[in-house]
Fold this protein.
Amino acid sequence: MVVTFTVERSGRVRGVAISRGSGSAILDAAAEAMLREAMLPPFPAAMPQDRMTVTVQVRFALQD
């Protein structure tokens, strides 16, 4: 699956969207919820942006 989200300078995650689903609505919802509740480290002082949009690939490994 591919997820796109925006990170604010404070590290708060905003605007989570599934760009390419995994084929499982449950896994897609779990990945989206994980990011919506995430708090990332704040940007370093040398980084001038107020926000950054990131697209990442997420791989799941399901085990019994």
The beta strands are 2-8, 13-20, 51-57. Residues 2 and 19 are 5 Å apart (CA to CA). The mean pLDDT is 92. The helical segments are 25-36.
